[in-house]
TrEMBL record:
<dbReference type="InterPro" id="IPR013783">
    <property type="entry name" value="Ig-like_fold"/>
</dbReference>
<dbReference type="InterPro" id="IPR021615">
    <property type="entry name" value="Omp28"/>
</dbReference>
<dbReference type="Pfam" id="PF11551">
    <property type="entry name" value="Omp28"/>
</dbReference>
<protein>
    <recommendedName>
        <fullName>Outer membrane protein Omp28</fullName>
    </recommendedName>
</protein>
Length: 285
């Protein structure tokens, strides 16, 4: 395999809320790289679900259960982030809430990037509209997941994380291998989610103070809108490989590294075309 180019990426991704921690820094000792290789066989598609939910949303536990059903139906092929926004009553913590899951970046994703949030639970599934709506209610989820799981990906993705307990730092590697020519701009988005958080959740007639929250969005490693990959190539030819490195410090003591996962996805970046091409996940530790 012949290296064609080396792309040095540096900088700090500043956190957009005082409730979030960081920052994210690209590896100082490793340099993002791109090269050509033998074209790979396309992977099975994973489906990316961005679920907007809240601890005072009484109908949201039913939505969580639906997505867990998809995970049981398609093992290891559903990538989920549960996003708790500010400025939405159903996500406001209760007087028995221990942790506030809301993030400014998740709020900006809902209201700026996706154009607004008017109901919960709401899902964005692979960022593909249903009846011209990017956010869809639960009656549409199952059909959309079934449709997306059957489509062919134009690229393969791989992700690893090496955790340094001393510095509480996850050293993340994301590899993308193009499997068919792509004549579109592509964005890479990387985020941290956490599982197994015991905290309050409202139901229609009660509040469960021992509810187990899963896939809670903690922070974005990249910008929440993503970071463009291979900007100098158009089209991006089959066989092109791109590797990017990140170092992210879990400096919030409330987060449990053993329960955290890194998720990453590549999406189109062509105006309203923001379809997810592929998504992957790995444990932080």
């Amino acid at each position: 395999m012949k290296k064609l180019a080396l792309i040095a990426v540096s900088g700090i991704v500043a956190l957009a809320s005082c409730k979030e921690v960081g920052p994210t820094i690209d590896f100082a000792k490793k340099v993002d790289s791109t090269y050509t290789a033998t074209v790979e066989t396309p992977q099975n598609r994973n489906v990316m679900i961005e679920e907007f939910t809240g601890v005072t949303c009484a109908n949201c536990p039913a939505g969580h259960a639906m997505i867990e059903g998809f995970e049981a139906k398609y093992p290891n092929r559903i990538i989920e982030a549960r996003i708790y926004p500010f400025n939405f009553g159903q996500a406001t913590p209760t007087d028995v809430t221990k942790q506030d899951f809301r993030t400014q970046k998740g709020t900006d994703l809902a209201f700026v990037f996706f154009g607004g949030l008017s109901f919960m639970p709401a899902c964005v599934i692979d960022r593909v509209p249903v009846n011209n709506q990017i956010m869809v209610s639960s009656p549409s989820w199952s059909d959309q997941v079934d449709k997306r799981i059957a489509t062919v990906t134009p690229l393969n993705m791989y992700i690893t994380s090496a955790y340094d307990a001393g510095s509480k730092t996850a050293n993340i590697t994301v590899k993308t291998a193009i499997t068919q020519d792509i004549a579109k701009k592509l964005n890479l988005t990387v985020a941290i989610v956490e599982d197994s958080i015991i905290d309050a959740q409202e139901y229609p007639s009660t509040t469960d103070t021992f509810y187990m929250h899963q896939s809670v969005l903690r922070d974005f490693v990249t910008d929440y809108t993503g970071s463009e990959i291979l900007p100098g190539l158009n089209p991006k030819p089959a066989g092109q490989v791109y590797i990017r490195y990140f170092s992210y410090k879990l400096s919030n003591d409330a987060w449990v590294p053993e329960h955290c996962r890194v998720i990453a996805w590549i999406s189109n970046n062509e105006g309203k075309d923001i379809e997810v091409a592929q998504s992957v996940v790995t444990h932080v530790k």
